[in-house]
Amino acid sequence: MKLKIFLVFALLVFKTFNATAQNSSATLSGLIKDKTTKSPLPYINVVLKTAKDQKMLFGTLTNEEGRFNLTNVTSGNYTLEITSVGYKTKSQKIFVGTLSDFLDLNTIELEEDINTLSEVVVTSKSSEVSAKMDKKVFSVSDNIAQSGGSVLQSMQNLPGVTLHEGKVQLRGNDKVMVLIDGKQTALTGFGNQSGLDNIPASAIEKIEIINNPSAKFDANGNAGIINIIYKKNKQEGLNGKIGISSGYGALWERKTNLPTIRPQYQMTPKINPSLSLNYRKEKINTYLQADYLYTETLNKNEFVTRTYDDGTIINQQTVRNRNTHFTTLKSGIDWNYNEQNSFSFSALFGSEKIIDNGDEPFFNQDYSQRLRLWSFLEDELKTTVMASASYEHKFKQPGHKLNAGINYTYHREDEKYFFTNTLPASVGQDAFKLLSDEKVVDINVDYIRPLKYGRFETGFKFRNREIPTNMQFFPGANSPIDANAGGWANYKEIIPALYSNYIFETDRIEAELGLRLEYVKLQYDVNPNHPTYKSDGYNYTEPFPNVRFGYKIDDKNKITAFYNRRVDRPAEVDIRIFPKYDDAEIIKVGNPALRPQFTSAFEVGYKKTMEKGYFTSSVYYRIINGTIARIATTVPGSSLIYNVFQNADKSSSVGIEAVYSKEITPWYSFNLNGNLYQNTIDAFTVTNLYPTPSTYYGKRQQMVSGNLKWNNSLQLSKTLKGQISAVYLAPDIIPQGKIDSRFSVDLGLKKTVQKGKGEVFINATDIFNTLSIRKDIQGEGFNYRSKDFYETQVVRFGYSYKF
């Protein structure tokens, strides 16, 4: 029955977002020599013709050193013809593919006898989905329905992407590594996700999704990689773009508060001015991207009913009204010193100020008695500074280059919480303060050598990371806060890594073989007076191979296969020993004994190119050892629940993803994207040590889940575009329970004005107000059900002008 469901779903599910076509052109280069004397031959005629009708497309002469370059050669089959007085004409079949931007034909020797050289390859496919094997690229400006929001919101319509509790999931898995301009930064987290909901989409040019990363990338993130590309123009002279957007969310109250607490936020305002400047002249290119995002948000509005085995029932609500000020500045300079050497320098500054005002009432079963009111104020400031310098040396052969770079990141987290703990017989004042300074140095060296049928890549990366943290608790009367659990901790991480990749391509075959070798040493020192945890850490040396293979059945049909091995190293917040009290009775705690989880992933795919459309599908399988998950337990004599990160046993996911895109008429096109998968979590046993040892026995869980996204694009006139997007997320399992289905519809309009230089838009998300998160959790001795009616319905409007 499950197999039938998979097969039927494979015919129905499809894609939901417009992707920008990848650059499918390349530069051909080579060296012409005399076969007898081996000396270079200058001023030799080199002509590129179509293979089918021998029509001449490009022509050039070799330079004084006998070298030639043919640039911007689109994918396809060609004949390379070399002629010169005194030498016999030489012809060679050439194929230009889509995997390499540079092809090296090596040395070509001329003699009196005709010598037909071996074949090379290049194919052209104009498609919304990248023809390259490693990634899909999406333009943020194409997502009209999410314009004016954050990067996180702009991702929710991307194929294979879902959002859950402020995190991005790829194919139902949130172990995603997020990069900015190809680098890990504290702005989005090293090895985890953070801050995506506060980065303005107005600062972003495009988003890359890499489901099967090569060995060139850090091995962290078993679900894949999302690379966020900031705007950076390279047009001659001074140019730029200025814009402003605004909006309102939480348009009405979705569920009434429990009694005696402050009102929920309604009609929450948003504002996002942005400025992009670029100046290019001769050898210098400078740029500046500046964005400010202010939002008021109903960040959380969760209703929870807890039921204990002894019959106790507690009803609670957590309402969190949030004000956020987020400023980002990114600037840099590119200096082309000469034709062979160039330098780039860039800096990024981010400041995120968050003020949370919230109430958390606790009532008995029939709401006749309020057991506790936990009112809180959070004052948090996150500051990020990043500086990068890189050097590129280009060898005489195009595409043959050496890159070196250094990246420094400093991130400070300054967090203060103030609580009023109101009980039936007393009122207490509680507080805690967290100060964390993260310092990261990354050094990388990369070497790329074009080959006749592809390229070879190799490189080295070294990371040194340190995060000293200090937490101080100030409990009041009858406080749930554990004052003894504070103190200091210091996270130290060293990661050297080596990688090599070989890419091969002909007119039928695409292949890549890579290996990354990483050594990781993590040391976590903690306050020796901590009541539960002691210093801990781990180290390993592990290989992370990747294999890719593609076969082109013909110009319109292609099959691919992938394998890679990846790791998810626990983030510093996952092992942080301090309990967090944003919920007074369901408390999150890290675990310094947490270990990495390792994943092996397999995928087989198929792509068919059709007239004004395409169809792709893939079947994938992932198996994870040492699955990282939060496990909720209680301790005897207390109703408090402790959510602690643990390594469960094995888990796996098998699924099928399909995409169909079609232009029906010049004014209407659609994408359907579907993902059907079966998640399995094997039985496991873990012991939460905090605050006292408590063992949980997890039963085997299995569920078929998935999502379906339908994106409709309307070209209403030459200057007016529209978009309607619908997303359905099926029920899914989570550790100790499940999450219910979710559904939403977004729409947007964008109009070009002022002869193409100006642009105005209006959009609305979750127009039917149907999106909410419902979870069921089953623990030892208790269970709880939660419903979070956080802010999902937002109307935005804006204007931008290019100059």
UniProtKB/TrEMBL annotation:
Signal peptide stretch: 1-21
Q: Tell me the compartments it is located in.
A: Cell outer membrane
Where exactly are the transmembrane stretches of this chain?
none
Keywords of this entry:
Cell outer membrane, Membrane, Receptor, Signal
* One GO CC term on file: cell outer membrane
Superkingdom of origin organism: Bacteria
Q: Where is the TonB-dependent receptor plug domain?
A: 144-224
Annotated SUPFAM superfamilies? Carboxypeptidase regulatory domain-like, Porins
Would the keyword Membrane be found if you checked this record's keyword annotation?
Answer: yes
Major location category of this protein: membrane
* UniProt domain Outer membrane protein beta-barrel: residue ranges: 393-801
- InterPro entries referenced in this protein's UniProt entry, alphabetically: Beta-barrel_TonB_sf, CarboxyPept-like_regulatory, OMP_b-brl_3, Plug_dom, Plug_dom_sf
UniProt KW Signal keyword: yes
What is the protein's name according to its record? Answer: TonB-dependent receptor
